[in-house]
Amino acid sequence: MKKRVDRLMAKPWVAHILRMQARYTNRLGNQFAGAITYFSVLALVPIILFAFGITGMVLTVLRPDLMAMVLQSAGDALAGFGGSLQETILGQIEEALTNWGVTGGIGLATALYAGAGWVANIKSAVRAQWRPEFDTNESKRFIVWETLANMGLLVGLLIIVAITVGVSQVATSLKDVVLGLLNLDGEAWARWAFSVGPMVVSLAAGWLLFLYIFRFFPERENRPSRSSLAWGGLIGAVGLMALQYLSGIIMGAFSGNAAAAVFGPIIVLMLFFNLFARLILYVCAWVATRNQPAVAREYNKADEPLRAVRHDVEVMAVPGHWSAAREDRRRKEQASGDSTDDSGIREDSARQAWNRQRSVRGPQPRGGDPRTMPHLEPDARQSVPQDVAARGVRIGMGAGWVAGTAAGVGLGAIIAGLVGKLFRR
Fold first, then answer.
1. Do the beta carbons of residue 345 and residue 330 sit within 8 Å?
2. Among 111, 10, 100, which Cα is nearest to 54's?
3. Where are the domains of the chain?
4. What stretch of H or E contains 223?
5. How far apart, in whole angstroms, are the C-alpha atoms of residue 128 and residue 31?
6. Which runs of E-coded beta strand occur in 260-317?
7. DSSP letters of 78-90?
8. Sign of CA dihedral 214, 218, 219, 224
9. Could you tell me if 213 and 126 are in contact, meaning their C-beta atoms sit under 8 angstroms apart?
10. Which of 175, 197, 196 is nearest to 184 (CA)?
11. Angstrom distances, CA of residue 62 to CA of 3, 45, 196
12. Nearest to 338 by CA among 306, 365, 301, 364
């Protein structure tokens, strides 16, 4: 069974998945995803305020005829609050919509600031998964320029998200129109074929979103190759599409219950944010470990396929990683009592073995080759070598015998003198 598991882990694609999981766990992926979720919810409030200001501009400047209809719909929704409270809330809504400039300005300023912090946290989480060593400090500009750069990334991200959502909605809504124009709305195969179209469009839009994140969020020196970027974007797009459909299913399940319909959207939104953050970081770990060991300076069996000669992938590892990994493996095997013969470790540490042998057996004849000598380890239970300990015991026993004999002879002479004096009396 163990051999089968070892053969399975030796497969490059299985080892890659194991490296991804080890990297994600070691780099605190779940904790970073929780932080992204928190800042996503925090940034959502000013974004809603800004959207409310945009709605007020549309209702007061572009389409004032719709104001009465919007207020009527809000009044119907607030019918259960009583007359006075209903009028107070409607008055506040109308005033906020009328003063859309102040509402939108405050919402825009706070949304940019909170959004810049949100982007900064996503960027830090992505870079934590991406760089070869976790303890390396993240390179940042002066705080003003860094904030402006994050705002620029936020604007680009919002544009791509708007394109993604817009294209998906248009593709979905045009499905029935196109089927009607072609007189195919009654054909099951046609409806199935046109249902695939929006999925392909959503997949392409999600791929574009992940390409943007993976291209501009990592540090310049750690940016991935084009092939890694393309494959990572495709995996992320498939995962995002699955999350969208899962969210739709959960929302449909909540709609049948009045109490769940109130809190359902909030629950689904927070769940979506968390799963989306985990998806981003998992894909980052997958792309990074395509040519990087799982954990810097630690042994991981899944790293072994990276040591094979491959001309299409350039392995990136911190200086001294492989020697530190061999030493870490040796320590783990000693701690577990595994006496597996590892010739690679012995050959790489031949000089250390030679020095250990000299300390145990004393000076050795010249001309010996350290790599051909037996791999000798000192016994950890011994504080000194055995021959030295035996020689010390023999010397101690001899000294004790001499001292004891001398003491016994002296004590006997004293007793004999005392007895002689008594008899002479």
1. yes
2. 100
3. 2-288
4. none
5. 12
6. none
7. TGGG-HHHHHHHH
8. negative
9. yes
10. 175
11. 72, 25, 37
12. 301
Helix boundaries (H) for 58-142: 67-77, 83-98, 100-130
Total Cβ atoms within 10 A of residue 45: 13
Concatenate the DSSP letters of all residues of 285-331 into one string: HHHHTTSS-SSTTS--GGGGGGGS--SS------TTHHHHHHHHHHH
The structure tokens 């953050």 sit at 277
Q: Which residues have C-beta within 8 Å of that of residue 257, sequence separation ≥ 6?
A: 264
Summarize the confidence of residues 399-424 as an average pLDDT. Answer: 45
* Residue 91: pLDDT over 80: yes
CA distance 338 to 301: 15
* DSSP assignment letter at 302: G
Q: Tell me how far CA of residue 57 lies from CA of 43, 67, 68, 109, in angstroms.
A: 22, 11, 14, 17
Residue type, 395: I
Helix (H, G, I), strand (E, B) or coil at 28: coil
Query: CA 85, CA 175: separation in Å to the nearest integer?
Result: 44
327-331: average pLDDT: 91
Predicted TM-score (pTM) of the model is 0.70
Q: How many CB atoms sit inside 10 A of residue 421's CB?
A: 9
Give the CA distances from residue 113 to residues 43, 71, 109, 155, 177, in Å, rounded to whole numbers and listed in that order: 9, 31, 6, 12, 41
Crossing angle for the helix pair 258-288 and 188-216, to the nearest 10 degrees: 60
Which residues have C-beta within 8 Å of that of residue 290, sequence separation ≥ 6? 16, 224, 228, 313
For the segment 71-88, what is each residue's pLDDT rounded down to a tens digit?
888 887 777 666 677 788
Do the beta carbons of residue 288 and residue 22 sit within 8 Å? no
Gap between the Cα atoms of 75 and 92, Å rounded: 12
Calculate the alpha carbon distances from 252 to 73, 165, 172, 271, 368 in Å: 23, 19, 18, 15, 78
Please give the Cα distance from 183 to 28 (Å, whole number).
Answer: 54
3-state SS class at 376: coil
Do the Cβ atoms of 246 and 256 come closer than 8 Å?
no
Place of tokens 């859309």: 100
- Tokens coding 222: 């750690």
pLDDT digits (tens, 9 = 90+) for 115-131: 888 999 999 999 999 98
